[in-house]
Here is the input.
Amino acid sequence: MSLAVASGNLVYRIPGASWTIELPAEAIETLQSHAQRRWWSKEAAGQLFSSAPELNTVRVDAVTKLPPRTASRTGLRLDIPAVVKERELFFKQGLHSLGFWHTHPEPSPSPSPDDIAL
Here is the structure.
């Protein structure tokens, strides 16, 4: 994955992809506000939304935090009806779900089997 910084935004290119994803400073701040910095911090998750997911550079226009059904330091289960409701609400505003984000308790995480399956 390659990373570039442009006007305070992070731009990622995933190896083999023909597109990049751009995270504006506001999106980065939102994600950082949910980082697990303490041993008792629970995992958090949310969705990323874009108004133009078909462009060569996909800009993240909104980052949300979803209410979990359950959450612990090393896992969580999403409230699927809340996911669907949020997607419908954002779609009515012209935003499309790009996918989920979630935290990990370790500083350099690697995907879990659940992450890979998702």
